[in-house]
Write a structure and sequence with these properties.
Layout (H helix, E strand, L loop, with lengths): L1 E6 L3 H10 L5 E6 L4 E3 L4 H4 L10 E3 H4 L5 E4 L3 E5 L4 E4 L4 E3 L2 E4 L4 E2 L7 H4 L1 E2 L3 H10 L7 E5 L3 H10 L4 E6 L10 H13 L3 E4 L3 E5 L2 E4 L3 E3 L2 E4 L3 E2 L2 H4 L18 E3 L2 E3 L7 E2 L2 E2 L4 H19 L14 E7 L2 E6 L4 E4 H22 L11
Parallel strand pairs: 1-2, 1-9, 2-5, 9-21, 11-18, 12-13, 12-18, 13-14
Antiparallel strand pairs: 3-4, 6-7, 7-8, 10-19, 15-16, 16-17, 20-21, 22-23, 24-25, 25-26
Helix pairs in contact: 1-9
Bound molecules: flavin-adenine dinucleotide.
Length: about 375
C-alpha cells in the first residue's frame, strides 16, 4: 500500500484527494483540524443578516466515506523528514510515502499598534463566526473594513444594507486585480450602497473603537482586517527551503522535496514573471494537478507538463444582487446582476464538481 498524506482539506487538498482516491493500492490520510471542507469564497454571504456559516461547510464525515481515505481530525504541527512522519496536535503520528501540503494561508497582520488587539481578521469559517457574533443587525453599527481587494470589497458590500460601513485601501484604487473601469464601477456601486471609501491612506494605529489613518480617522464598533495573506509560521518552520517571501520553494510542478508537493495558497505560482493571484479557483486546479501528477508517478507513468492554470474568470460580489468582474479568460467584462448571477453559478458548479468527485448527489442545490 502506498501511503499519501494530505495536510489541509480545502480547495487544494480535496482536489488532490479527488484525483488520488481511486488509484489502486493507495491509502490517503487527510489531516485537518476542522469539521468540514470550508467553502471560503461563500463566507462573505454568511455575514449578511440571514446568512449562516454552517451553510458553507461540507462535513468531512459525510464527504469522505471512501475506504481509501482516513481523517486525522487535528492540526499538523511538525514533520520528521527522515522518518517521513507528521505529528499532529492530538498526538497522532502519520507516516507517508507522498505528501501534499495544502494547509492554506493565514491573514497577514503588519505590526500596526493596536491592530492585533482590536481587529478581526477574515480568512476562514472560525473568523467569520467571530465577526458574526460581534455584529448586531437590529442596531446600526459602524463597521470599518481594511483592505480594498476582493475580500474587503465583498465584505463591505455584504454589510452595507444593515450597517454604516467604511472601506479603507492603502493603494490609490480598489481591486487592483481588475481593470480600472471595472474597479471604478465597483467603487460607484459601493458608494451607492452607502459605503464610505478611503483610498491612498495606510492605517497608522488602532485604538479602542478608533482607527487612525495618515490624514483621517474613523470610529468603529467592529473592525475587519482583509489586508492580505501570508504563509503560516508553522509551515515556515518545517525546514523546507523558502523563497524571498517565505513560501516553500517549489518547482513548476509544485515539488518542494522528495515526493513532497505544495498546492493552493501555499504554492506561489509565477507565470511570465507575475504571481498568479491566490484564489480558490487556482487552489482547486493546483490540487487536482498535483494529485494527478502523483497518481501518474505511482503508476510508473511520466509526470507531464508544468502547472499552467487556465483562469476562467474573476467575479466579485458587490452586494446580494450585484457584482463585477470578467469571464472567459479575461476576454469579457461583466457588471451588475449578470456578474452576481455568474458568481452564484460558479459556487454551484464547484458543489457539482465535489458531488461528482465524491459521489455525493445531495451536495448539489443543498444549503448543506
Ligand atoms: C473571505 C474570502 C473570500 C474569498 N473569495 C474568493 C472568491 O470569490 N474566489 C476565489 O477563487 N477565491 C476566493 N478567496 C480565496 C480562497 O478562499 C483561497 O485562495 C482558497 O481557499 C485557498 O485554498 P487552499 O486549499 O490553499 O486553502 P483553504 O481552502 O484555506 O484550506 C486549507 C485547509 O487547511 C487546513 N489547515 C490549516 N492549517 C492546518 C494544519 N496545521 N494542519 C492541518 N490542516 C490545516 C484548514 O483547516 C483548511 O481546511 C477568498 C478568500 C477569503 C478569505
Amino acid at each position: 500500500m502506498t501511503e499519501i498524506a494530505v495536510i489541509g482539506g480545502g480547495y487544494a487538498g480535496l482536489g488532490a484527494i479527488g484525483a488520488l482516491q481511486d488509484v489502486p493500492h493507495v491509502h490517503i490520510t487527510l489531516i485537518d483540524p476542522g469539521t468540514g471542507h470550508q467553502l471560503i469564497p461563500e463566507l462573505p454571504e454568511a455575514l449578511s443578516r440571514h446568512g449562516s456559516v454552517s451553510n458553507h461547510i461540507v462535513p468531512y464525515d459525510q464527504l469522505l466515506e471512501s475506504a481509501s481515505v482516513s481523517l486525522v481530525n487535528s492540526r499538523a504541527m511538525s514533520i520528521d523528514w527522515t522518518l517521513r512522519t507528521i505529528s499532529s496536535a492530538n498526538g497522532s503520528v502519520t507516516a507517508f510515502d507522498w505528501l501534499v501540503l495544502a494547509a492554506g494561508s493565514e491573514p497577514s497582520l503588519p505590526p500596526i499598534p493596536g491592530l492585533r488587539e482590536f481587529a478581526h481578521p477574515l480568512r476562514d469559517a472560525a473568523d467569520t463566526l467571530r465577526i458574526k457574533e460581534s455584529l448586531r443587525y437590529l442596531k446600526e453599527q459602524r463597521i470599518v473594513v481594511v483592505g480594498g481587494g476582493l475580500t474587503g470589497v465583498e465584505v463591505a458590500g455584504m454589510l452595507a444594507p444593515d450597517h454604516d460601513v467604511v472601506l479603507i485601501e492603502a493603494a490609490h484604487r480598489l481591486l487592483p486585480a481588475l481593470g480600472k473601469g471595472l474597479a471604478e464601477y465597483a467603487l460607484r456601486r459601493l458608494q451607492r450602497s452607502g459605503v464610505i471609501t478611503t483610498v491612498g491612506q495606510k492605517v497608522q494605529a488602532v485604538e479602542n473603537q478608533l482607527v487612525i489613518l495618515e490624514r483621517d480617522h474613523y470610529g468603529f464598533d467592529v473592525l475587519i482586517w482583509a489586508g492580505g495573506i501570508t504563509v503560516p509560521t508553522w509551515v515556515k518552520n518545517l525546514g523546507l527551503p523558502l523563497d524571498n517571501r517565505g513560501y516553500p520553494l517549489a518547482d513548476h510542478y509544485g515539488k518542494v522535496g522528495d515526493q513532497v508537493y505544495v498546492a493552493g495558497d501555499l504554492w506561489r505560482v509565477v507565470v511570465d514573471d507575475h504571481d498568479v493571484a491566490a484564489t480558490a479557483q487556482v487552489a482547486a486546479l493546483a490540487g487536482t494537478y498535483v494529485g494527478e501528477l502523483i497518481a501518474r508517478k505511482i503508476q510508473g507513468e511520466p509526470g507531464g507538463s508544468p502547472f499552467l492554470p487556465r483562469i476562467r474568470g474573476m467575479l466579485i460580489s458587490l452586494d446580494p444582487g450585484q457584482g463585477v468582474g470578467w469571464v472567459l479568460h479575461g476576454g469579457i467584462p461583466v457588471r451588475g446582476m449578470s456578474a452576481r448571477t455568474l458568481k452564484s453559478l460558479s459556487f454551484q458548479q464547484y458543489r457539482q464538481k465535489l458531488a461528482r468527485r465524491f459521489n455525493k448527489p445531495w451536495l448539489v442545490g443543498s444549503n448543506l
